[in-house]
Amino acid sequence: MGCLLSTPGDSGGACRMRNPGSIGEVAVFVPGFRIPKGVDFAQSLGDSVPKSLADRIAALRARVVVMVAQETPLSAKPRRRTATRHGGSALANLLRALEDYLPVLLGLVKDGGRLRDKVRFAWANQEDDAEETVMANAWYEVLSVLHLMSMLCLSQANSMLLPRTAGDSYHQPRVSGESKRTSVDVFLKAAGYLDCAIQHVLPQIPPQSRRDLPVDLTEGVLRALSLQALGQGVDIQLGMAIDSPKATLAVKRRLACEMAKYWHQAQDYIAQLPLPEGWGKKHQLFVRWKLVEAKAAAYYFHGLILDEGNTEKSHGMAAAALQASEEFLKESKKACAAFNSVPPTSRNPPLWGCMKYLTEKIPKDASSKVRVNRDLYTQERIIETAPTLPDFALALKPDDYQLPQLDPIWNNGISF
To answer: Facing residues of 123 across strands?
Structure first.
């Protein structure tokens, strides 16, 4: 069984950084990166593996350590994409470095894990780099790598979804259709890494060690992050459906209800977790904000469909649904302000997509429907409580990511 130790971080370490006072515009909230610390593979592995193999794994991990140190200060404050320069390329390079490292790392857990507990892996957290978590268990390293890979994807999605201005300054900032479509794939990729971590890596870590994992690697946080990625993917799909003349009202309602369901499940996992003040609290508020937004969308489209009925009851239920939608929209503005005000502070990018549409449509349609129904029926006959939303099966699933095949170096011992 591996061991765990939490120690004060080395203030002179290359990866140490100060938490930013502001993280700028946020379309996708990305919890602070987990930061790998240096490891002496030669001393830890000794004569257990050929020197060429120990050197190879050390070089691959050292490359990751250096790249994380370079990227972490930038990732804390996202940038809008430009045609010539963007940190997204650095994020992609770091993701490739992790993908190169993982097949070699997995050799430490092959054949029953003879080498599993020989190396003490150390990671700190951008959210709280005063302490680092050290575990002599290679599965902990695999878990940390998958978590970082998913965070890189969320960071990439955030940069894709920050509106940018076209070549001239006369156009309003916008998010391109290509960025929207690509971001959905990136969200599914992030969820796939997290799902693999939950299903195939966490069970490999002994129960006692799992209880000692940092909170951001616990099952509840990993599941909340996966659901968050899926919820934001559906958000983008709903926005594209709103823009499409071919998308029916029923399709929009289904997407909105599914989005609300994803965010509700995410909140169920994250709401009661002992997350620290600051970044942790901010993460909980982000999930809360997006859940309320999703409910506003779901009740709005549900109300429009109910209003297509020709009965007094259906019109009354439509009015109640639209009133609920307007209340959730008002609540979402308060939740948004609460999220942005928690340190590190943030701000909203210019409105776009489904929320820009709904912010304009909900107050108008809700007011119109309630006024018409008040003319037709007495106030007592208008349903006071919102009707139950339809319960649709969740269609968006994480990518089916599987741990890579073992690097051939573990089989033939060829020197690099």
So the answer is: 36, 133
248's CB contacts (< 8 A; 6+ apart) are none
Total number of domains in the chain: 1
Q: Is 398 helix (H, G, I), strand (E, B) or coil?
A: coil
For residue 306, being part of any structural domain is answered with no
pTM (2 d.p.): 0.88
Could you tell me the CA-to-CA distances from 222 to 38, 81, 227 in Å, in that order?
25, 28, 9
Q: What CATH number is associated with residue 144?
A: 1.25.40.280
- State the Cα–Cα distance between residues 23 and 345, nearest whole angstrom: 6
CA distance 154 to 137: 27
Please, are residues 134 and 6 in contact by the beta-carbon 8 Å criterion?
yes
Give the integer Cα–Cα distance in Å for 349 and 52: 49
Q: pLDDT tens, 95-139? A: 999 999 999 999 999 877 789 999 999 999 876 656 789 999 999
Percent of the chain at pLDDT > 70 equals: 83
Q: Are strands 345-347 and 131-135 parallel, antiparallel or unpaired?
A: unpaired
In a domain, 150, yes or no: yes
Range of the domain at 155: 13-162+175-245+407-412
In Å, what is the CA distance from 77 to each residue of 29, 215, 233? 11, 23, 22
Work out the angle between the directed axes of helices 249-270 and 279-306 (0-180°, nearest 10).
150
**Rounded to an integer, what distance in angstroms lies between the CA atom of residue 184 and that of residue 380?**
44
Average pLDDT over residues 267-292: 90
Q: What's the CA angle centered on 104, arms 98 and 108, to 5 degrees?
A: 120
Q: Do 237 and 255 meet the contact criterion of CB atoms below 8 Å apart?
A: yes
- pLDDT, tens digit, 9 for 90 and up, residues 202-256: 999 999 999 989 988 999 999 999 999 999 999 999 999 999 999 999 999 999 9
Q: How much helix, strand and coil, in percent to the nearest 5, is found in the chain? A: 60, 5, 35
257 domain-assigned? no
Structure tokens at 28: 């996708």
User: What pLDDT band is residue 351 in, cutting at 50, 70 and 90?
Assistant: confident
99 C-beta neighbours (distance < 10 Å), count: 12
Q: Is 230 domain-assigned?
A: yes
